Amino acid sequence: MALLLRTLARRGVCTPCPRFCLYRHAVPMGSSAKEEMDKFWAKNTRLNRPMSPHITIYRWSIPMMISITHRGTGVGLSGGISLFALAALVLPGDYTSHLELIHSLSLGPALITGAKFILAFPVMFHTCNGIRHLVWDIGKGFKIPEVYRSGYTVMGLSLIFSALLAAL
Fold this sequence. Notes:
0% strand, 6 helices, mainly alpha
């Protein structure tokens, strides 16, 4: 539709009355998409830029690692919850029988606490970073020092809360 209106506007096909002119706000394009694409590739070739940036060309930073970890914990948690729900439907027995099975393995308290920490960390990290994203949604904390500070805060709080949950 926009292309049709631009074509008509360039040819001057319009009624004299502006009230009936549908394309009075249409602006003719300065260049075509092909010209813009050619300029883009010429600039990238001149600057010797890679055709498709790969993660190895970037220097790792805390915001990058936290973003990747947030996505990973989200996928892991949703997959874990789905597997747990599927296991609850398929496996015989109930919760108490599965809990008795774990107690019968006689795993030491250090191993149990470590396993609880490993299960608690993704939940706590995803929760703390989700709160960080909610703060960002209201428009706060976008300056680079604040992004780094909030990233370190998320990591610290996640470790502390995970340790507290594991100690229960």
